[in-house]
């Protein structure tokens, strides 16, 4: 499983385009929040809309002001305008007499302090732009993250001109937005930016970890005693490790909405980041072997589990696990709910349930099937081949078997939850069902 690179470590030195523009312009410092002269508003509405259009900004101008003029680092004359938009954030638009294309900075970018830490000289002041964090709310919503933005700030630019913003949400969580010049914006958990220039400061690590107890409760498997963030993936899932009060450990997957999307025991989580570090995976695996051995025996399948693997599935209320048994050649697939007795299916019947064994070949089941046929008075048939025939509406599994002596094969019917067949059907009796017998010796017969 690949992990998203820690973008903060990959940041180039902060591109001070915005701050440099503000520092290079001879715009006089003004007292805090002075009234905006009517003539500045009138000039802005007259002169700014064509510049907005020329800059390619997605903005329907509802208000504007002329901010003044200054001299750029290249000696050019630069004129600045602030605009408020019907949709999203407002902008500061600059026009240079040496460039045909205006440059635009959104209000969060424009508010970025200069490299020496001094406040920006081109902060947005229109009443419509008084809360630039609210302007970024539609962008956050489009990512699928559940977040009502309470604060936001511009972090910088990546070498490919992707913009980075930090947002804090009501309730305490936070994200870093990546907005590429072309393509969809993604929102990454602030915990992925523990170090580097893009480190989150609007929220704390504890606030972003507060989701974990609720995830653990949703899993129905763990009361956490320790927890840690592991990684985030390109689909914007976040993975957390929890160590539980019963000694077990899990990786919990939260989807982009913050809901539980997966529960992976630490014994199976070695491929996720650096694996589990809060629990002893080897000890946990031994405990799980013993646990599944007991559950299998309760289900009527005597198996001393020596190896197992969980099938991926979204229902955290049950485990679906393939088991290798040290006391018998045929393994099985167990479906064990959190409460009540489970079911175990051999590696043929499990295919009717939608699960195929990878540790055990289906031929390991043949001796057991031969013994069941003998118990039914068909001892002359030594099973040489078998396949799932179908799954009945009442939950019964049907298995077609072929005989080594080339004689007539059979379809064996196993009721749900039973290891013993209750009925045998010859190939003539099932000729009109599921295409009839398909094994080669049975078709010849």
What's this entry about, in short?
21% of the residues lie in helices and 30% in strands.
Explain what the structure shows.
The chain is of the alpha+beta class and 445 residues long. The protein folds into five domains: 114 residues, no CATH class; 74 residues; 59 residues; 76 residues; 81 residues. 21% of the residues lie in helices and 30% in strands. The strands form five sheets. The protein has a four-stranded antiparallel sheet with strand order 1-2-3-4. Strands 5-6-7-8 form a four-stranded antiparallel sheet. Strands 9-10-11-12 form a four-stranded antiparallel sheet, with helices on one face.
Topology:
Blueprint: H1 7-10, H2 17-24, H3 38-55, E1 61-71, E2 77-85, E3 91-96, E4 103-106, H4 107-110, H5 132-135, H6 137-142, E5 149-157, E6 163-169, E7 174-179, E8 186-189, H7 205-209, H8 212-219, E9 224-232, E10 238-244, E11 249-254, E12 260-265, H9 281-298, E13 305-310, E14 318-325, E15 332-337, E16 343-346, H10 349-352, H11 366-375, E17 383-391, E18 397-403, E19 410-414, E20 423-426, H12 440-444
Antiparallel strand pairs: 1-2, 2-3, 3-4, 5-6, 6-7, 7-8, 9-10, 10-11, 11-12, 13-14, 14-15, 15-16, 17-18, 18-19, 19-20
């Amino acid at each position: 499983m690949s992990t998203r690179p820690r973008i903060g470590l990959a940041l180039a030195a902060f591109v001070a385009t915005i701050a440099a523009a503000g520092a290079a312009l001879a715009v006089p410092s003004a007292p805090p929040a002075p009234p905006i002269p009517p003539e500045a508003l009138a000039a802005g509405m007259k002169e700014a809309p064509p510049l907005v259009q020329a800059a390619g900004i997605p903005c329907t101008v509802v208000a504007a002001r002329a901010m003044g003029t200054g001299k750029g680092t290249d000696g050019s004359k630069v004129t600045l305008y602030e605009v408020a938009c019907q949709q999203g954030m407002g902008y500061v638009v600059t026009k240079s007499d040496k460039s045909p294309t205006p440059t635009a900075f959104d209000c969060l970018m424009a508010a970025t302090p200069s490299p020496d830490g001094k406040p920006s000289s081109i902060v947005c002041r229109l009443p419509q732009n008084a809360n630039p964090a609210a302007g970024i709310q539609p962008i956050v919503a489009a990512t699928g993250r559940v977040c009502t933005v309470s604060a936001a700030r511009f972090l910088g630019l990546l070498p490919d001109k992707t913009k980075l913003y930090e947002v804090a949400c009501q309730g305490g969580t936070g994200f870093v937005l990546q907005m590429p010049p072309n393509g969809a914006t993604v929102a990454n958990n602030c915990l992925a930016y523990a170090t580097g220039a893009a480190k989150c400061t609007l929220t704390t690590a504890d606030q972003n970890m507060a989701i974990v107890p609720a995830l653990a409760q949703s899993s129905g498997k763990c009361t956490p005693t320790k927890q840690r963030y592991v990684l985030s993936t390109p689909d914007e899932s976040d993975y957390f490790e929890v160590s539980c009060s019963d000694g077990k450990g899990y990786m919990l997957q939260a989807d982009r909405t913050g809901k539980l999307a997966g529960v992976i025991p630490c014994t199976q989580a070695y491929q996720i980041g650096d694996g589990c570090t809060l629990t002893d995976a080897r000890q946990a695996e031994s405990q799980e072997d013993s646990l599944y051995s007991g559950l299998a025996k309760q289900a009527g399948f005597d198996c001393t589990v020596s190896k197992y693997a969980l099938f991926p599935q979204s229902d955290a209320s049950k485990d679906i696990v393939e088991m290798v048994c040290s006391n018998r050649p045929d393994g099985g697939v167990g479906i064990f709910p959190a409460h009540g007795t489970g079911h175990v299916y051999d590696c043929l019947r499990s295919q009717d349930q939608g699960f195929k064994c990878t540790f055990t070949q289906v031929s390991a089941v043949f001796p057991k099937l031969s013994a069941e046929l003998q118990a039914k008075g068909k001892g002359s048939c030594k099973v040489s081949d078998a396949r799932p025939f179908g799954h009945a509406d009442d939950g019964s599994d049907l298995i077609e078997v072929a005989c080594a002596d080339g004689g007539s094969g059979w379809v064996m019917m196993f009721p749900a939850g039973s290891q013993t067949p209750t009925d045998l059907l010859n190939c003539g009796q099932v000729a009109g069902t599921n295409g009839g017998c398909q094994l080669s010796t049975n078709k010849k017969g």
